[in-house]
Specification:
446 residues; alpha/beta; 5-stranded mixed β-sheet; 4-stranded parallel β-sheet
Length: 446
Protein backbone atom coordinates (compact mmCIF):
# COMPACT_ATOMS: atom_id res chain seq x y z
CA UNK A 1 0.00 0.00 0.00
CA UNK A 2 1.64 3.23 -1.08
CA UNK A 3 1.32 6.46 0.74
CA UNK A 4 -1.27 8.87 -0.58
CA UNK A 5 -1.71 12.53 0.05
CA UNK A 6 -5.39 12.58 -0.87
CA UNK A 7 -7.84 13.43 1.91
CA UNK A 8 -8.91 10.36 3.84
CA UNK A 9 -12.28 9.03 2.73
CA UNK A 10 -14.95 7.85 5.13
CA UNK A 11 -17.37 4.95 4.70
CA UNK A 12 -19.12 4.51 8.04
CA UNK A 13 -21.42 1.78 6.79
CA UNK A 14 -18.74 -0.46 5.32
CA UNK A 15 -17.47 -2.10 8.47
CA UNK A 16 -15.37 -5.12 7.54
CA UNK A 17 -12.98 -7.46 9.32
CA UNK A 18 -9.47 -6.84 8.04
CA UNK A 19 -7.40 -10.01 7.89
CA UNK A 20 -3.94 -9.98 9.42
CA UNK A 21 -0.94 -10.91 7.35
CA UNK A 22 1.16 -11.22 10.49
CA UNK A 23 1.98 -14.51 12.08
CA UNK A 24 -0.98 -14.38 14.45
CA UNK A 25 -4.63 -14.98 13.70
CA UNK A 26 -7.48 -12.50 13.61
CA UNK A 27 -10.58 -12.60 15.74
CA UNK A 28 -11.81 -11.34 19.05
CA UNK A 29 -9.35 -9.92 21.52
CA UNK A 30 -7.36 -12.50 23.41
CA UNK A 31 -8.43 -13.30 26.97
CA UNK A 32 -6.88 -11.10 29.65
CA UNK A 33 -3.57 -12.23 31.04
CA UNK A 34 -3.05 -11.99 34.78
CA UNK A 35 -0.72 -9.32 36.06
CA UNK A 36 2.70 -10.52 37.14
CA UNK A 37 2.82 -11.15 40.87
CA UNK A 38 6.26 -9.72 41.42
CA UNK A 39 7.34 -6.25 40.40
CA UNK A 40 9.40 -6.25 37.19
CA UNK A 41 11.98 -3.59 36.48
CA UNK A 42 11.09 -1.77 33.28
CA UNK A 43 13.32 -2.12 30.24
CA UNK A 44 12.10 1.24 29.07
CA UNK A 45 13.12 3.36 32.05
CA UNK A 46 14.87 6.65 31.47
CA UNK A 47 16.12 7.79 34.84
CA UNK A 48 14.08 7.19 37.99
CA UNK A 49 10.48 6.32 37.20
CA UNK A 50 7.72 3.87 38.00
CA UNK A 51 6.07 1.13 36.02
CA UNK A 52 2.40 1.70 36.76
CA UNK A 53 0.85 -1.30 35.02
CA UNK A 54 -1.26 -3.59 37.21
CA UNK A 55 0.90 -5.40 39.74
CA UNK A 56 4.04 -3.52 38.65
CA UNK A 57 3.85 -0.17 40.42
CA UNK A 58 7.35 -0.25 41.86
CA UNK A 59 10.23 2.23 41.63
CA UNK A 60 12.95 1.47 39.12
CA UNK A 61 16.71 1.91 39.41
CA UNK A 62 17.77 5.43 38.65
CA UNK A 63 20.89 4.27 36.79
CA UNK A 64 20.31 1.39 34.38
CA UNK A 65 23.35 -0.46 33.10
CA UNK A 66 24.87 0.78 29.85
CA UNK A 67 26.88 -0.61 26.97
CA UNK A 68 30.16 0.91 25.91
CA UNK A 69 28.22 2.83 23.27
CA UNK A 70 25.98 4.35 25.93
CA UNK A 71 22.83 2.35 25.19
CA UNK A 72 20.75 1.68 28.30
CA UNK A 73 20.11 -1.91 29.27
CA UNK A 74 17.20 -3.42 31.11
CA UNK A 75 18.03 -3.78 34.82
CA UNK A 76 16.86 -7.41 34.53
CA UNK A 77 18.99 -8.30 31.56
CA UNK A 78 22.28 -10.11 31.33
CA UNK A 79 23.65 -9.52 27.90
CA UNK A 80 25.45 -12.54 26.46
CA UNK A 81 27.73 -12.75 23.43
CA UNK A 82 26.38 -14.19 20.21
CA UNK A 83 28.79 -17.11 20.55
CA UNK A 84 29.22 -18.84 23.91
CA UNK A 85 32.16 -21.02 24.89
CA UNK A 86 31.22 -24.59 25.79
CA UNK A 87 34.25 -26.46 27.09
CA UNK A 88 36.97 -26.23 24.46
CA UNK A 89 34.57 -25.63 21.58
CA UNK A 90 32.48 -22.68 20.50
CA UNK A 91 28.81 -23.10 19.65
CA UNK A 92 27.43 -20.53 17.20
CA UNK A 93 23.75 -20.16 16.51
CA UNK A 94 22.51 -19.32 13.04
CA UNK A 95 21.36 -15.71 13.11
CA UNK A 96 17.74 -15.02 12.20
CA UNK A 97 16.33 -11.55 12.78
CA UNK A 98 12.80 -10.53 13.65
CA UNK A 99 11.39 -7.05 14.19
CA UNK A 100 8.24 -6.60 16.30
CA UNK A 101 5.98 -3.57 15.88
CA UNK A 102 3.73 -3.10 18.92
CA UNK A 103 0.88 -0.79 19.89
CA UNK A 104 -2.54 -0.78 21.53
CA UNK A 105 -4.13 -1.53 18.14
CA UNK A 106 -7.56 -0.41 16.97
CA UNK A 107 -10.65 -1.98 15.47
CA UNK A 108 -12.51 -2.19 12.18
CA UNK A 109 -15.54 -4.26 13.10
CA UNK A 110 -17.57 -2.87 15.99
CA UNK A 111 -19.70 -5.99 16.15
CA UNK A 112 -16.90 -8.49 16.72
CA UNK A 113 -13.99 -6.42 18.03
CA UNK A 114 -15.15 -3.46 20.11
CA UNK A 115 -16.23 -5.22 23.30
CA UNK A 116 -13.06 -7.29 23.56
CA UNK A 117 -10.88 -4.29 22.77
CA UNK A 118 -12.46 -2.20 25.53
CA UNK A 119 -12.29 -5.08 28.01
CA UNK A 120 -8.58 -5.62 27.42
CA UNK A 121 -7.91 -1.88 27.67
CA UNK A 122 -9.68 -1.59 31.02
CA UNK A 123 -8.12 -4.74 32.47
CA UNK A 124 -4.53 -4.02 31.46
CA UNK A 125 -3.93 -0.40 30.44
CA UNK A 126 -1.38 1.24 32.80
CA UNK A 127 -2.94 4.60 31.97
CA UNK A 128 -5.90 3.81 34.24
CA UNK A 129 -5.07 4.54 37.89
CA UNK A 130 -6.76 1.37 39.14
CA UNK A 131 -5.55 -1.70 41.04
CA UNK A 132 -5.92 -4.97 39.19
CA UNK A 133 -8.58 -6.40 41.50
CA UNK A 134 -11.13 -3.64 40.78
CA UNK A 135 -10.64 -3.47 37.02
CA UNK A 136 -13.13 -6.25 36.15
CA UNK A 137 -15.80 -4.44 38.16
CA UNK A 138 -15.03 -1.13 36.44
CA UNK A 139 -15.17 -2.88 33.07
CA UNK A 140 -18.56 -4.45 33.81
CA UNK A 141 -20.05 -1.19 35.06
CA UNK A 142 -18.35 1.12 32.59
CA UNK A 143 -19.05 -0.78 29.37
CA UNK A 144 -22.80 -0.01 29.21
CA UNK A 145 -22.02 3.63 29.93
CA UNK A 146 -19.25 4.00 27.33
CA UNK A 147 -20.74 1.79 24.61
CA UNK A 148 -23.09 4.41 23.06
CA UNK A 149 -20.30 7.01 22.88
CA UNK A 150 -17.83 4.59 21.30
CA UNK A 151 -20.40 3.28 18.82
CA UNK A 152 -21.14 6.87 17.81
CA UNK A 153 -17.45 7.65 17.29
CA UNK A 154 -16.75 4.58 15.20
CA UNK A 155 -19.92 5.07 13.16
CA UNK A 156 -18.61 8.51 12.19
CA UNK A 157 -15.05 7.49 11.34
CA UNK A 158 -15.81 4.11 9.79
CA UNK A 159 -13.18 1.34 9.76
CA UNK A 160 -9.83 2.59 11.01
CA UNK A 161 -7.85 0.16 8.79
CA UNK A 162 -5.37 0.14 11.67
CA UNK A 163 -4.29 -3.48 11.25
CA UNK A 164 -4.10 -3.25 7.46
CA UNK A 165 -1.94 -0.13 7.66
CA UNK A 166 0.24 -1.71 10.35
CA UNK A 167 0.80 -4.76 8.15
CA UNK A 168 1.67 -2.47 5.25
CA UNK A 169 4.15 -0.71 7.52
CA UNK A 170 5.67 -4.07 8.42
CA UNK A 171 5.99 -4.96 4.73
CA UNK A 172 7.66 -1.63 3.99
CA UNK A 173 10.14 -2.13 6.84
CA UNK A 174 10.93 -5.65 5.66
CA UNK A 175 11.72 -4.25 2.22
CA UNK A 176 13.82 -1.41 3.66
CA UNK A 177 15.85 -3.91 5.68
CA UNK A 178 16.34 -6.08 2.61
CA UNK A 179 17.59 -3.00 0.74
CA UNK A 180 20.26 -2.77 3.46
CA UNK A 181 21.20 -6.40 2.95
CA UNK A 182 19.35 -7.67 6.02
CA UNK A 183 16.89 -10.53 5.67
CA UNK A 184 14.38 -10.14 8.52
CA UNK A 185 10.81 -10.98 9.29
CA UNK A 186 8.66 -8.12 10.59
CA UNK A 187 5.81 -9.00 12.95
CA UNK A 188 2.89 -7.02 14.37
CA UNK A 189 1.41 -7.50 17.86
CA UNK A 190 -1.11 -5.47 19.85
CA UNK A 191 -1.80 -4.94 23.54
CA UNK A 192 -5.59 -5.01 23.39
CA UNK A 193 -6.62 -6.98 20.30
CA UNK A 194 -5.63 -9.75 17.95
CA UNK A 195 -3.00 -10.38 16.77
CA UNK A 196 -1.69 -9.90 20.31
CA UNK A 197 1.93 -9.61 21.37
CA UNK A 198 2.12 -13.13 22.80
CA UNK A 199 0.88 -14.53 19.47
CA UNK A 200 3.64 -12.67 17.64
CA UNK A 201 6.32 -13.77 20.12
CA UNK A 202 5.31 -17.42 19.79
CA UNK A 203 5.36 -17.15 16.01
CA UNK A 204 8.86 -15.69 16.06
CA UNK A 205 10.02 -18.66 18.10
CA UNK A 206 8.36 -21.08 15.67
CA UNK A 207 10.05 -19.26 12.79
CA UNK A 208 13.46 -19.79 14.39
CA UNK A 209 14.17 -16.14 15.15
CA UNK A 210 17.31 -15.64 17.26
CA UNK A 211 17.44 -11.83 17.52
CA UNK A 212 14.46 -9.51 18.01
CA UNK A 213 14.18 -5.72 17.90
CA UNK A 214 10.99 -4.16 19.29
CA UNK A 215 9.47 -0.83 18.25
CA UNK A 216 6.39 0.93 19.54
CA UNK A 217 4.26 2.34 16.73
CA UNK A 218 4.92 5.81 18.03
CA UNK A 219 8.13 7.75 18.51
CA UNK A 220 7.98 8.19 22.29
CA UNK A 221 8.56 5.88 25.26
CA UNK A 222 5.61 5.75 27.64
CA UNK A 223 4.82 3.29 30.41
CA UNK A 224 1.42 2.87 28.79
CA UNK A 225 2.82 1.96 25.36
CA UNK A 226 6.37 0.65 25.03
CA UNK A 227 6.55 -0.05 28.76
CA UNK A 228 3.54 -2.35 28.67
CA UNK A 229 4.64 -3.96 25.40
CA UNK A 230 8.04 -4.82 26.83
CA UNK A 231 6.42 -6.47 29.84
CA UNK A 232 4.13 -8.49 27.60
CA UNK A 233 7.14 -9.67 25.58
CA UNK A 234 8.96 -10.58 28.80
CA UNK A 235 5.94 -12.50 30.08
CA UNK A 236 5.63 -14.38 26.79
CA UNK A 237 9.33 -15.26 26.72
CA UNK A 238 9.14 -16.61 30.28
CA UNK A 239 6.60 -19.12 28.99
CA UNK A 240 9.08 -20.22 26.31
CA UNK A 241 12.09 -21.30 28.41
CA UNK A 242 13.68 -23.31 25.59
CA UNK A 243 13.92 -20.31 23.25
CA UNK A 244 17.49 -19.04 22.96
CA UNK A 245 16.92 -15.48 21.84
CA UNK A 246 18.34 -12.00 22.23
CA UNK A 247 15.69 -9.26 22.43
CA UNK A 248 16.27 -5.52 22.44
CA UNK A 249 13.85 -2.61 22.32
CA UNK A 250 14.29 0.77 20.67
CA UNK A 251 12.58 2.67 23.46
CA UNK A 252 12.09 5.89 21.54
CA UNK A 253 13.32 7.84 18.54
CA UNK A 254 11.48 11.09 19.24
CA UNK A 255 14.68 13.01 19.90
CA UNK A 256 16.46 11.60 16.84
CA UNK A 257 17.24 14.50 14.46
CA UNK A 258 16.47 12.21 11.52
CA UNK A 259 12.92 11.68 12.77
CA UNK A 260 12.36 15.37 13.43
CA UNK A 261 13.69 16.34 10.00
CA UNK A 262 11.50 13.70 8.34
CA UNK A 263 8.46 15.05 10.21
CA UNK A 264 9.09 18.65 9.12
CA UNK A 265 9.78 17.68 5.52
CA UNK A 266 6.70 15.46 5.25
CA UNK A 267 4.45 18.13 6.79
CA UNK A 268 5.67 20.80 4.39
CA UNK A 269 5.32 18.43 1.42
CA UNK A 270 1.79 17.43 2.46
CA UNK A 271 0.77 21.07 2.94
CA UNK A 272 1.92 21.87 -0.58
CA UNK A 273 0.19 18.82 -2.10
CA UNK A 274 -3.08 19.11 -0.20
CA UNK A 275 -3.40 22.91 -0.56
CA UNK A 276 -1.81 23.55 -3.98
CA UNK A 277 -0.96 27.16 -4.61
CA UNK A 278 -1.57 28.22 -1.01
CA UNK A 279 0.95 30.59 0.53
CA UNK A 280 2.61 29.06 3.62
CA UNK A 281 1.47 32.01 5.75
CA UNK A 282 -2.16 31.02 5.04
CA UNK A 283 -1.64 27.40 6.14
CA UNK A 284 -1.84 26.28 9.77
CA UNK A 285 -0.09 22.98 10.44
CA UNK A 286 -1.75 21.57 13.55
CA UNK A 287 0.23 18.72 15.09
CA UNK A 288 -1.63 16.44 17.47
CA UNK A 289 -0.15 13.79 19.74
CA UNK A 290 -1.26 11.14 22.22
CA UNK A 291 -2.11 12.63 25.62
CA UNK A 292 -1.24 11.03 28.94
CA UNK A 293 -2.91 11.02 32.36
CA UNK A 294 -1.07 13.18 34.86
CA UNK A 295 -0.63 10.31 37.31
CA UNK A 296 1.76 8.61 34.86
CA UNK A 297 3.70 11.83 34.32
CA UNK A 298 3.95 12.28 38.10
CA UNK A 299 5.49 8.81 38.30
CA UNK A 300 8.21 9.66 35.81
CA UNK A 301 6.72 8.96 32.38
CA UNK A 302 8.84 10.89 29.89
CA UNK A 303 6.66 10.60 26.78
CA UNK A 304 4.96 14.00 27.08
CA UNK A 305 8.27 15.80 27.43
CA UNK A 306 9.63 13.88 24.45
CA UNK A 307 6.62 14.95 22.37
CA UNK A 308 6.95 18.60 23.32
CA UNK A 309 10.72 18.64 22.78
CA UNK A 310 10.27 17.17 19.30
CA UNK A 311 7.39 19.55 18.56
CA UNK A 312 9.52 22.57 19.49
CA UNK A 313 12.19 21.62 16.94
CA UNK A 314 9.67 20.75 14.22
CA UNK A 315 7.78 23.98 14.89
CA UNK A 316 10.91 26.11 14.47
CA UNK A 317 11.67 24.36 11.18
CA UNK A 318 8.14 24.94 9.83
CA UNK A 319 7.97 28.53 11.08
CA UNK A 320 11.18 29.20 9.16
CA UNK A 321 9.37 27.95 6.05
CA UNK A 322 6.57 30.46 6.66
CA UNK A 323 3.82 28.23 8.09
CA UNK A 324 1.62 28.77 11.12
CA UNK A 325 2.16 25.92 13.61
CA UNK A 326 0.20 24.69 16.64
CA UNK A 327 -0.06 21.58 18.80
CA UNK A 328 -2.71 19.88 20.95
CA UNK A 329 -3.10 16.58 22.80
CA UNK A 330 -5.56 13.80 21.99
CA UNK A 331 -6.74 12.69 25.42
CA UNK A 332 -8.75 9.57 26.20
CA UNK A 333 -10.18 11.52 29.13
CA UNK A 334 -13.24 9.35 29.67
CA UNK A 335 -12.28 8.25 33.19
CA UNK A 336 -14.05 10.45 35.77
CA UNK A 337 -11.71 12.61 37.82
CA UNK A 338 -8.53 11.82 35.87
CA UNK A 339 -6.28 14.75 34.94
CA UNK A 340 -4.73 14.74 31.48
CA UNK A 341 -2.17 16.65 29.49
CA UNK A 342 -3.10 20.05 28.14
CA UNK A 343 -3.95 21.79 25.95
CA UNK A 344 -6.36 19.28 24.51
CA UNK A 345 -6.54 19.59 20.72
CA UNK A 346 -10.16 20.76 20.71
CA UNK A 347 -9.43 23.35 23.41
CA UNK A 348 -6.47 24.66 21.44
CA UNK A 349 -8.64 24.82 18.30
CA UNK A 350 -11.17 26.98 20.17
CA UNK A 351 -8.33 29.20 21.38
CA UNK A 352 -7.11 29.65 17.80
CA UNK A 353 -10.57 30.76 16.69
CA UNK A 354 -10.83 33.14 19.67
CA UNK A 355 -7.38 34.60 18.97
CA UNK A 356 -8.39 35.31 15.38
CA UNK A 357 -11.61 36.94 16.55
CA UNK A 358 -9.71 39.17 18.98
CA UNK A 359 -7.21 40.13 16.31
CA UNK A 360 -4.31 38.38 18.05
CA UNK A 361 -3.33 36.29 15.03
CA UNK A 362 -3.92 35.92 11.32
CA UNK A 363 -6.79 33.69 10.31
CA UNK A 364 -5.60 30.52 8.57
CA UNK A 365 -7.29 29.77 5.26
CA UNK A 366 -6.18 26.15 5.36
CA UNK A 367 -5.47 23.76 8.25
CA UNK A 368 -3.46 20.56 7.97
CA UNK A 369 -4.17 18.21 10.87
CA UNK A 370 -1.45 15.66 11.60
CA UNK A 371 -0.95 12.75 14.01
CA UNK A 372 2.54 11.50 13.11
CA UNK A 373 4.27 13.04 16.12
CA UNK A 374 3.15 10.07 18.24
CA UNK A 375 1.21 7.73 15.91
CA UNK A 376 2.75 5.91 12.95
CA UNK A 377 -0.67 4.77 11.64
CA UNK A 378 -4.02 6.48 12.08
CA UNK A 379 -6.03 5.55 15.18
CA UNK A 380 -9.43 6.48 16.58
CA UNK A 381 -7.74 9.37 18.39
CA UNK A 382 -6.52 10.96 15.17
CA UNK A 383 -9.57 9.98 13.12
CA UNK A 384 -12.17 11.18 15.63
CA UNK A 385 -10.63 13.55 18.19
CA UNK A 386 -8.63 15.40 15.54
CA UNK A 387 -10.35 14.84 12.21
CA UNK A 388 -13.93 15.19 13.44
CA UNK A 389 -13.97 17.19 16.69
CA UNK A 390 -11.08 19.60 16.06
CA UNK A 391 -11.92 19.78 12.35
CA UNK A 392 -15.49 20.93 13.08
CA UNK A 393 -14.22 23.77 15.27
CA UNK A 394 -11.68 24.97 12.73
CA UNK A 395 -13.74 24.73 9.54
CA UNK A 396 -16.99 26.20 10.87
CA UNK A 397 -17.62 29.93 10.28
CA UNK A 398 -18.90 31.73 13.37
CA UNK A 399 -21.83 34.11 13.80
CA UNK A 400 -21.62 37.91 14.13
CA UNK A 401 -19.74 37.71 17.44
CA UNK A 402 -17.06 35.71 15.64
CA UNK A 403 -17.18 37.59 12.36
CA UNK A 404 -13.41 37.70 11.99
CA UNK A 405 -13.27 33.89 11.68
CA UNK A 406 -14.63 32.71 8.33
CA UNK A 407 -13.72 29.06 8.75
CA UNK A 408 -10.84 27.23 7.12
CA UNK A 409 -10.38 24.38 4.69
CA UNK A 410 -9.31 21.48 6.92
CA UNK A 411 -7.66 18.22 5.86
CA UNK A 412 -6.07 15.33 7.72
CA UNK A 413 -2.60 14.45 6.52
CA UNK A 414 -1.77 10.82 5.75
CA UNK A 415 0.11 8.92 8.41
CA UNK A 416 3.44 7.16 7.90
CA UNK A 417 1.88 3.77 7.11
CA UNK A 418 4.13 2.34 4.36
CA UNK A 419 6.02 5.60 3.75
CA UNK A 420 9.38 4.40 2.32
CA UNK A 421 11.37 7.16 4.02
CA UNK A 422 9.90 6.28 7.41
CA UNK A 423 10.55 2.60 6.75
CA UNK A 424 14.15 3.47 5.87
CA UNK A 425 14.50 5.30 9.20
CA UNK A 426 13.16 2.29 11.12
CA UNK A 427 15.52 0.03 9.18
CA UNK A 428 18.48 2.21 10.17
CA UNK A 429 17.38 2.20 13.80
CA UNK A 430 17.06 -1.60 13.60
CA UNK A 431 20.62 -2.01 12.35
CA UNK A 432 21.86 0.30 15.10
CA UNK A 433 20.00 -1.71 17.74
CA UNK A 434 21.38 -5.00 16.41
CA UNK A 435 24.85 -3.52 16.75
CA UNK A 436 24.09 -2.26 20.27
CA UNK A 437 24.49 1.33 19.12
CA UNK A 438 20.95 2.71 19.22
CA UNK A 439 20.79 5.84 21.36
CA UNK A 440 17.79 4.85 23.46
CA UNK A 441 17.54 1.08 23.66
CA UNK A 442 17.09 -1.67 26.21
CA UNK A 443 18.21 -5.29 26.10
CA UNK A 444 15.39 -7.45 27.40
CA UNK A 445 16.67 -10.98 26.88
CA UNK A 446 18.58 -13.09 27.56
Amino acid sequence: MTQTNAPLSRSPSNFVQVSSRSAATTGAASPPRAATATATASATASGACFDASPGRAQPLPATPATTTSGARLSPLSVRLPAAQAVGDREVKQERKIGVLLTSHGDIDNVGTQLRGYVREAVLRNPGLPLPANVRPVVDAIGWPLQKPNLLSQYSQIGPTSYDENSQNQADALEKALKDKGIEAGVYVGYNFMAPNIEDAVRQMKEDGVTEVVIFNQGAQNSMATMGESVHEVQDAVERLPDWDVRISAVNSFSDDPRFRKLMADRLAEDAQKMFPGAAPKDVLIFLTSHGLPKHLIDKGDKATKQMLDAYAVIKDDLLARGYQVEHGFLNDDFFPGARWTSPKATVRAEQIVEDVTLGKREAPKHVLLDGRLSFTVHHRATLFDADIEAREILETPRGPAWSRYKGAEVKLAPNFDSDPKFAALLATLTTEALAGKAKDMAVIAP
